[in-house]
Amino acid sequence: MQTYAFGIPKWIIHGIHLLVGLFLVSTGNDIRMSRPMATGSKNILAGLGLISALYQAFLWIRGGRDFYSYNLPAWVVHTIHILNGLILLSLGSNLFPLSTENAGLYLIIVGALAAFYHLHLWVWG
Asked: CB-based burial of residue 71 (10 Å sphere; 0-12 exposed, 13-18 middle, 19+ buried)?
């Protein structure tokens, strides 16, 4: 299969995850280095979180796929995206402020995982 939901080519999804992953790692590093987070970065985090949570919830309700790459159950993929989306939304909007150290570390880890996992899927399928 060369596409995801709604016929979106896989390379677009992988590219988006790579860019978002790099943004999260960069933002997390800025936080860890005690650089103030720009308002634009907070808005991007909140927007990414909202889009991720709502879109994955929509895909889950809509149904369609039972498994993703490497037979990973769809419910696992949707749950991970929804939870991470809610965390990004809370970080961007300061709903549940985490300590600077924890927030930066979380963004670095999640960003690196997203980027490397999708790079792996893109290159090796």
From this structure: exposed
Q: How far is CA 20 from the centre of its chain?
A: 7
Structure tokens at 87: 């965390």
Whether residue 17 contacts residue 114, with contact meaning beta carbons closer than 8 Å, is answered with yes
* Alpha carbons 31 and 35: distance in angstroms, whole number: 6
List pLDDT tens digits, range 8-23. 998 999 999 999 999 9
Domain boundaries, the chain: 7-124
pTM above 0.70, yes or no: yes
Q: Which backbone phi and psi does 60 adopt, to 5 degrees?
A: -65, -45
Spatial neighbors of 2 by CB under 8 A, at least 6 apart, are: 9, 10
